[in-house]
């Protein structure tokens, strides 16, 4: 084989090799992992008004799905397990959207003595976030073991931290039940329960509706302080589980199915 033929053969092989590698590249670029859809939580319909006493003994709670509270995914990856579990349930009627919670808690702490306080800095608290899917505003609602409450209203996440969000007034109702003693760290408690009722009138004040087929998002969060915990500070958990701890991570809230 003479030199011109050798050169032509080598050039052809080189072009074929380059062409093959070039054709493979787009497949790698388009092979992207899509984020999974948000989980769904169901609010079951209650034909009778729920008695807000913290007992969770109304018939509707027996029919409602129990959703577990979970540590954030990055906490789990770093070896932090859920030390004191809890679960939540959702219900509704024509007047209220309801939340029921049941928490294991070996050291019940509640140092906040009033309403409209930042109770997550003052002891154990359940936080309930409610947001219409297609609007920017949302609510952040609290209940403590002492049946104290707080209600924030955010026109959007761009108003986080503003004093005006804590001046919000609504007819939120809360009640807690305690199995143990509050603020007595030397003994061992069993846990606490709570019921929250947010008026449909408050949730629909800006044109939204609480009804089957309406699109809402929801998240329930917990701060748990305890002398028995291995963690530094509070154990924080949520339902649904978050990828990391940020209770205002709106895209990761569960979709709320209002069922009747």
Quick rundown:
The protein is of the alpha+beta class and 260 residues long. The protein has helices at residues 3-30, 59-63, 73-77, 200-203, and strands spanning 40-45, 67-68, 86-92, 96-104, 125-132, 138-143, 149-154, 173-179, 191-199, 216-224, 235-239, 254-258.
Question: What structural class do helix, strand and pairing data support?
Answer: alpha+beta
Order of helices and strands: HEHEHEEEEEEEHEEE
Largest sheet: 12 strands, mixed
CATH topology of the largest domain: Immunoglobulin-like
Mean pLDDT: 90
Rough outline: globular
CATH class of the largest domain: Mainly Beta
What would you say the CATH architecture of the largest domain is?
Sandwich
Helix content: 10-25%
Strand content: 25-35%
Q: Let me know the number of strands.
A: 12
Number of helices: 4
The unreliable regions are 1-33
CA-based gyration radius: 26 Å
Tell me the number of structural domains: 2
End-to-end CA span: 84 Å
Task: Please name the defining characteristics of this protein.
disordered N terminus, single chain, 4 helices, 260 residues, 16% helix
Structure description:
The protein is an alpha+beta fold. The protein folds into 2 domains: about 1-30, no CATH class; about 40-260, Sandwich (Immunoglobulin-like), CATH 2.60.40. The protein is about 15% helix and about 30% strand. It is built from 4 helices and 12 strands. The protein has helices at about 5-30, 60-65, 75, 200-205; strands spanning about 40-45, 65-70, 85-90, 95-105, 125-130, 140-145, 150-155, 175-180, 190-200, 215-225, 235-240, 255-260. Strands 1, 2, 3, 4, 5, 6, 7, 8, 9, 10, 11 and 12 form a 12-stranded mixed sheet that branches. The longest helix is centred in the N-terminal third of the chain and has 28 residues, at about 5-30. It starts with a helix and ends with a strand.
């Amino acid at each position: 084989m003479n030199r011109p033929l050798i050169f032509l053969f080598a050039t052809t092989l080189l072009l074929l090799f380059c062409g093959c590698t070039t054709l493979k590249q787009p497949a790698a670029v388009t092979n992207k992992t899509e984020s999974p859809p948000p989980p769904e939580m169901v609010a079951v319909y209650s034909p009778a008004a729920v008695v807000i006493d913290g007992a969770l003994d109304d018939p509707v709670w027996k029919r409602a799905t129990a959703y577990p509270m979970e540590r954030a995914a990055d906490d789990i990856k770093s070896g932090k397990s859920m030390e004191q579990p809890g679960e939540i349930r959702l219900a509704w009627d024509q007047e209220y959207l309801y939340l029921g919670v049941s928490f294991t808690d070996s050291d019940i702490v509640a140092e906040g003595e009033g309403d409209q306080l930042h109770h997550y800095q003052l002891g154990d608290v359940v936080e309930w976030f409610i947001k219409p899917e297609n609007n920017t505003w949302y609510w952040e609602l609290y209940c403590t073991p002492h049946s104290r409450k707080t209600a924030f209203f955010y026109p959007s996440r761009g108003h986080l931290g503003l004093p005006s969000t804590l001046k919000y007034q609504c007819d939120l109702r809360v009640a807690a039940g305690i199995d143990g003693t509050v603020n007595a760290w030397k003994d061992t408690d069993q846990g606490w329960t709570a019921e929250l009722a947010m008026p449909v009138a408050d949730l629909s004040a800006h044109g939204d509706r609480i009804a089957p087929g309406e699109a809402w998002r929801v998240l329930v969060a917990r701060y748990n302080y305890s002398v028995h915990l291995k963690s530094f500070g509070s154990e924080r958990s949520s339902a649904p589980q978050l990828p990391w701890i940020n209770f205002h991570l709106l895209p990761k809230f569960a979709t709320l199915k209002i069922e009747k």
